[in-house]
Amino acid sequence: MLRQHEMTVRVRYKETDAMGVLHHANYFVYFELGRTELLRASGGNYRKMEEGGLLVVVVKAECRFRRPAHYDDLLTLRTTVLRVTRAKIEQQCEVLRDGECLAVGHVTLAVVDRSGKVQPVPDWLREEEDET
Amino acid sequence: MLRQHEMTVRVRYKETDAMGVLHHANYFVYFELGRTELLRASGGNYRKMEEGGLLVVVVKAECRFRRPAHYDDLLTLRTTVLRVTRAKIEQQCEVLRDGECLAVGHVTLAVVDRSGKVQPVPDWLREEEDET
Amino acid sequence: MLRQHEMTVRVRYKETDAMGVLHHANYFVYFELGRTELLRASGGNYRKMEEGGLLVVVVKAECRFRRPAHYDDLLTLRTTVLRVTRAKIEQQCEVLRDGECLAVGHVTLAVVDRSGKVQPVPDWLREEEDET
Amino acid sequence: MLRQHEMTVRVRYKETDAMGVLHHANYFVYFELGRTELLRASGGNYRKMEEGGLLVVVVKAECRFRRPAHYDDLLTLRTTVLRVTRAKIEQQCEVLRDGECLAVGHVTLAVVDRSGKVQPVPDWLREEEDET
């Protein structure tokens, strides 16, 4: 899997709140977009993983909010794989606007089957892609 | 099933947008709360219906927005069953604040099985409850 | 303003529900994306309109749901301006997947000022763009 | 302000995702409900605080997810004020179902004015209510 991935996302009106800013819970939704696209860019596909019976669940999520984002802002999501073991995947997700970091999150993921039983993280998610 | 049901819902901060009002898409979420609780008040339970293999899907939804709702407003949802046939259920949902109508919606529902195939509306949903 | 605009949107995991499909209320969020981008493609910018004191509000919204959309589906939003008068804007929004229409919506919009008072639709929103 | 507050919240269909569980981002929305109602139970009102020009913003949010919640679950939100200084408020929010803890979150809040400038936490938020 790729170690890092960047994509852009534009803040939707629905995602703002009465303070006129991107509501903080939506950052966690953005982190999810980031890891979906990191997986796709690595040649994987989360939808196919699920159809194959493996679900990726969030075990822990955290975010530090530094500056607000606003409606229509074009943000960059930079997702970095920090660590992958047989038990879990740790990712960092930075939200940037014009190079300035607005928020930094960390998410710990585990893999489970349909019944919710923890499964080992598949090998192909653990191998770092050779970018040379 | 009961013909009419009322419940209250308080506008969440997350449900507001940068205009400082309840975002219009959330009214459709409220309508869903209204019909869930109408069903419960009638002695039914949507969760059990689903577990039994019958899903209620929205075929058409519409809403006229008259006045905005704001954060922390305590709203009344009045759900009225307009018509139930073997093919569909038609409901009206009014959103009120202090007796004033802010929005009126109409939703048409159908019943399907897990594969998405249309099923007849169960008898117990079609029978009007004798309130005498 | 352009009469028609198309864009794509990918269904987010957060937008699905326990039925495994795109929750119906999210179609109205997509319609909003469609009209934002139609405006941008026409040389306008909704954010700047708001900063200038004019807000576009939804007066009526309606959608017919024909087939479900699923997580990760790449959908096409086709927004068509049906009618623009001094009082309101009427748009149609079709949601398509591989050319198949999943849902068709209609939205009626009005223009208000910060205090909520109805304003005439600005001329530049009423003039059809000359595409020749 | 009260040190601890409990309220219930029922999981909405819209809040579930294709895994059939409460989507993890919604826990942060629940935490917000918990602190709004803790404030109200303490005799305060967040809406009035905002109208008075003071906004409470989330500086950091974190959650550990232990077990999934499902549609229609009636959950208990237990909000505990851990620490209040002139600079920030630290709260813990536990999400329970039938006494079992499903998730534990921690949120750090700061107070800002309309321009986003940090303000001291008002005295009345810092004083512990005498429950005797």
Give the integer mean of the pLDDT values of chain A.
95
Query: What is the CATH class of chain A?
Result: Alpha Beta
The CATH homologous superfamily of chain A is called: Hotdog Thioesterase
Oligomerization? homotetramer
Major protein interface? A-D, 21 and 21 residues
CATH topology of chain A: Thiol Ester Dehydrase, Chain A
Structure in words:
4 copies of one chain form a homotetramer. With 132 residues, chain A is of the alpha+beta class. Chain A has a single domain, classed as Hotdog Thioesterase (Thiol Ester Dehydrase, Chain A), CATH 3.10.129. Helix content of chain A is 20%, strand content 42%. Chain A contains 3 helices and 6 strands, in the order βααβββββα. In chain A, strands 1, 2, 3, 4, 5 and 6 form a 6-stranded antiparallel sheet that branches. In chain A, β3 and β4 form a beta hairpin. The mean pLDDT of chain A is 95.
Essential attributes:
homotetramer; 132 residues; alpha+beta; Thiol Ester Dehydrase, Chain A; 20% helix; elongated
